[in-house]
Amino acid sequence: MNRDYINKTTLLCLVVIISALFLTMIHQFLMAIFMAGLFSAMVSPLHHRLTAKLRGREALASILTVFGIVLLVLTPLAILITMVIAQAISVGQSVTPWVQGFIKEPSTLSALLEKVPYYEEILPYRDIIIQKAGELVGTLSTFLIDSLSSFTKVTIGAIFSSIIMLYVMFYFLSMGDLLLKKILYFLPMDDDSEQKLLKRFTSVARATIKGTLIIGIMQGAICGIAFAIAGIHGPVFWGSVMAVMSIIPAVGTAIIWLPALIILALTGDFAGVAILAVLCGAVAGNLDNVLRPRLVGKDTEMHDLFVLFGTLGGISMFGLLGIILGPIVAALFITIWEIYGEAFKNYLPNVEVVLKKRRDDQDYPR
């Protein structure tokens, strides 16, 4: 057997084994490292401009860039999270007695049902509706209380991950270009495919940050203001929840404000209904259609199905960071299959001919 073949096979096995061992050892820091790389790529143009103004002192430019992120992004975010936690606890404390009373006294829902149009037609199903509504409210209450306790643990972990991320960002900004060249060198792909994959990654990441997050923040802020004007308790909490829900295509913030609108209508608060319908439905609901084409270039847009499954799958796998990571993974999935199609185009069938032939067979049955 060829000695060179044995050496390369042994080396490849050692590379896989030791790399897997190393990644397993640092798996709890991988997300922070990945986010550091993502944000470093986002602020890289700013870092280059600072380096030029500081006459090539990259370390100082990296320190100023990281400090700017802490001052302009993480500090306001920490204040917002503190307000959200405080209002979430307040909402949970106010909802729990109401839920307990609702479960014990379902006559409240019965009185609300009497205000619904065509009440006589649904009267035979009143007991079933009350029973199912009680079960749903109890489930939602339990979910809310459990989420509050788990959210506190997640917040502590996020603080620690943020510190790691900022520390790694300093080195990525200082030596990111050299590290990226090393990574691309070790990938056994041609340069065009590597550049296409890298360009797709950075463009989708930038589009996700600019598009999804900015639109989500704006929609959450508008809907939170609408809740405050309508007199709904915990507007900052509900606005933050709607900012997260805005990432879901077609449904978005309506998951929260539409049930609130229905409850206000059943309780006779038609002024609140008008406020939610105008601000949440008409204004916030159309922000996505108006701003997304401007914030997200057409070359980085994906079909709504890929956005939906990428976002929901990203959240289920990565947690809240899946809002950013999910669409990126979906875009890389599409891109890698495009590269595959170009690399193996000589071995793949001509789809247009197949479809044309199939269409002809349907038009002229034998």
How would you summarize what this structure contains?
The protein has 366 residues and is mainly alpha-helical. It has helices spanning 3-25, 30-42, 44-53, 58-104, 107-113, 119-122, 126-186, 191-230, 235-245, 254-266, 270-295, 304-318, 322-343, 351-363.
Helicity range:
over 70%
Distance between the termini: 59 Å
Tell me the major beta sheet: none
**Structural class per helix/strand content?**
mainly alpha
Mean pLDDT across every amino acid position = 75
The unreliable regions are none
What Rg is obtained from the alpha carbons, in whole angstroms?
Answer: 27 Å
Count of helices? 14
SSE ordering = HHHHHHHHHHHHHH
Shape: globular
Number-wise, the strands total 0
Strand content: under 5%
Structural domains: how many: 2
Write up what this structure looks like:
This protein has 366 residues and is mainly alpha-helical. The protein has two domains: 33-186, no CATH class; 190-361. Helix content is 83%, strand content 0%. It contains 14 helices and no strands. α3 packs antiparallel against α4 (58-104). The longest helix has 61 residues, at 126-186. The protein is globular, with a radius of gyration of 27 Å. The protein starts with a helix and ends with a helix. The model has no long low-confidence stretch (mean pLDDT 75).
